[in-house]
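Duplicate of #3305? Posting structure anyway:
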């Protein structure tokens, strides 16, 4: 089975909401020809919009997400036979013949079984050794395939804030390739960035800018530190029971001044439409789950740019067990028609 871009576990993923988001955007932004996903996360919203537009901007500040976008959403050439041959080698690995490295030494019997850790170590090292003989697309396809393969079987509840400490970890790793979303030499124009959204907003122009920022104090670079570390392969010193490296890529949208940064972002955008996703978190038992910006805050800021309409859909959100979402939990989509356009 080839992985699709949406085949991963990710806090706040919009995969189940994509049909609704797409429907609202198509109906209310009908004259648009370009789309910018400035906090793209999994990239599933851009993926869903591929048939609608030819020009895209996709951005996220995680290293792993940049690699994933370049694998799935680039239209650069790659040698499919070469990639398939390498993948076949990775599928047939025997763990007892492999040497331990960073993953086995640190995550073995925690996030992955020892056998699976040995395979992940080998594949990650092998991809890096081959880098000079791979073009950028081939490298990113192999690395993304590894990410999706180990993320599927990781001993977690869906993020890496902790590993599950009860029970035996099964040997279940199986390397599978991804299925790129765009054909080689497609006329689709996808510009991929790993940049601070507020800085990027000053430099780019797009008819639609879709915004789904982090709202709580949960830092995505900390939630997905294992994926980030294996992607960068910098083998950092790790700390605490969750085995996290020193903090890196910390988002201002998860801090007390989130609204100030959101306001600056909105004011700097050059677009016809601004579409903002927002989900509420009722009865949160965890301070880290509480939103840093309110519904009213966001609506007030958006109205400074133009006529703003709010659309609402009931939605069962990701829950790791500390937040009680009652039947009032909703996904909200703001659509702002920018004044003067």
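Output from current build:
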């Amino acid at each position: 089975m080839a992985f699709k871009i949406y085949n991963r576990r990710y806090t706040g993923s919009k995969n189940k909401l994509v049909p609704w988001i797409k429907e609202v955007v198509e109906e209310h932004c009908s004259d648009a020809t370009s789309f910018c996903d400035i906090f793209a996360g999994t990239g599933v919203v851009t993926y869903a919009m591929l048939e609608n537009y030819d020009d895209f901007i996709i951005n996220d500040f995680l290293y792993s997400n940049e690699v994933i976008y370049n694998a799935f959403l680039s239209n650069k050439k790659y040698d499919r036979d070469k990639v398939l041959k390498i993948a076949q080698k990775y599928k047939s690995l025997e763990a007892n013949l492999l040497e331990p490295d960073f993953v086995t030494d640190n995550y073995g019997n925690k996030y992955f079984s020892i056998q699976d850790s040995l395979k992940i170590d080998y594949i990650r090292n092998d991809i890096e050794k081959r880098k000079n003989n791979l073009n950028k697309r081939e490298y990113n396809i192999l690395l993304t395939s590894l990410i999706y393969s180990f993320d599927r079987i990781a001993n977690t509840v869906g993020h890496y804030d902790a590993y599950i400490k009860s029970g035996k970890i099964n040997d279940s790793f199986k390397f599978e390739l991804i299925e790129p979303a765009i054909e080689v030499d497609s006329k689709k124009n996808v510009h991929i960035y790993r940049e601070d959204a507020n800085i990027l907003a000053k430099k780019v122009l797009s008819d639609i800018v879709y915004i789904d920022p982090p709202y709580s104090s949960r830092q995505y670079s900390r939630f997905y530190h294992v994926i980030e570390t294996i992607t960068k392969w910098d083998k950092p010193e790790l700390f605490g029971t969750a085995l996290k490296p020193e903090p890196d890529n910390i988002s201002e949208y998860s801090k007390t001044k989130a609204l100030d940064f959101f306001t600056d972002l909105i004011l700097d955008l050059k677009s016809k439409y601004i579409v903002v996703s927002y989900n509420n978190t009722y009865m949160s038992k965890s301070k880290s789950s509480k939103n840093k910006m309110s519904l009213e805050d966001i609506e007030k800021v958006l109205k400074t740019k133009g006529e703003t309409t709010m659309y609402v859909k009931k939605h069962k959100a990701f829950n790791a067990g500390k937040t009680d979402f009652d039947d009032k939990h909703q996904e909200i989509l703001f659509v702002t028609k920018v004044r003067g356009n």
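Confirmed duplicate; merging threads. Residues 15-338 form a domain with the Rossmann fold fold (CATH 3.40.50.150). The chain has one domain: 15-338.
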